[in-house]
């Protein structure tokens, strides 16, 4: 299985969300999720790029298709997403029109109304996604959208970032502020937003 490609970007079709990468004299066609369009558009033809890939073929479609992602965590999210009944790779790559972090937060907060905004995702399928993936997407929900877009990291404000992340998980701002304050009081060694958020969610899960 081809799990990653590094080579020269030779073609980008934004309408089809397909790019070509030339590597070692061979040109590969890679289907990209819609959310990756900004990442690709920030590159130029002739640039060296790397994408993490998922290769798919079955009896009905014996010719392998490569699905590509700017980061490994996005590829791993895709692998989880296609485990949901009635979501195959082709449907999944069309549905991923929002950043992985945003979709993961919708799943973890059981926000089926938000999930129904994704192409091809109706009410029944949104509920199925939540039932199969809730509790499995914590790492993805902690990602920052600015990182997914490839922007330069911003100096962290751990408390503020953790509060905003909890608000994104459907906590009220007052609850988020209280939980983060309690976490930092109990664990002053936590120096990253991800650690604070994980501690809060673990404490909430224990009741």
Structural summary, described in words:
The chain is built from eleven helices and five strands; from the N terminus they run βββαββαααααααααα. The protein has 207 residues and is of the alpha+beta class. A five-stranded mixed β-barrel has the order 1-2-3-5-4.
Compute the gyration radius: what is it? Answer: 19 Å
Helix content: 40-55%
Strand order of the largest sheet: 1-2-3-5-4
CATH architecture of the largest domain: Orthogonal Bundle
**Distance, first to last CA:** 43 Å
Would you state the CATH class of the largest domain?
Mainly Alpha
Overall pLDDT: 86
Q: Per CATH, what is the topology of the largest domain? A: DNA polymerase, domain 1
Low-confidence stretches: 146-156
Which terms summarize this structure?
five-stranded mixed barrel; OB fold (Dihydrolipoamide Acetyltransferase, E2P); 5 strands; globular; 11 helices; Helicase, Ruva Protein, domain 3; 207 residues; alpha+beta; 3 domains; DNA polymerase, domain 1
Summarize the structure.
It contains eleven helices and five strands, in the order βββαββαααααααααα. It has helices spanning 37-41, 72-81, 89-95, 100-108, 112-115, 123-133, 138-141, 145-148, 158-168, 173-186, 193-206; strands spanning 4-13, 18-23, 26-31, 48-56, 65-69.
């Amino acid at each position: 299985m081809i799990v990653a490609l590094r080579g020269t970007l030779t073609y980008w079709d934004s309408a089809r969300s397909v790019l070509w990468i030339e590597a070692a004299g061979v040109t590969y066609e890679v289907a990209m999720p819609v959310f990756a369009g900004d990442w690709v558009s920030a590159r130029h033809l002739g640039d060296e790029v790397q994408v993490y890939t998922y290769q798919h073929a079955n009896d009905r479609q014996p010719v392998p298709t490569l699905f590509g992602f700017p980061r490994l965590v996005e590829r791993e999210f895709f692998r989880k997403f296609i485990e949901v009944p009635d979501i195959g790779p082709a449907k999944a790559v069309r549905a991923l029109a929002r950043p992985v972090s945003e979709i993961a937060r919708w799943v973890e907060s059981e926000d089926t109304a938000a999930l129904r905004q994704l192409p091809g995702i109706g009410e029944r399928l949104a509920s199925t996604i939540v039932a199969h993936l809730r509790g499995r997407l914590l790492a993805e929900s902690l990602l920052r959208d600015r990182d997914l877009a490839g922007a330069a990291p911003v100096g962290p404000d751990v408390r503020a970032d953790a509060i905003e992340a909890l608000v994104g998980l459907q906590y009220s701002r007052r609850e988020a502020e209280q939980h983060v304050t309690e976490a930092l009081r109990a664990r002053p060694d936590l120096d990253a937003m991800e650690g604070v958020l994980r501690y809060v969610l673990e404490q909430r899960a224990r009741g």
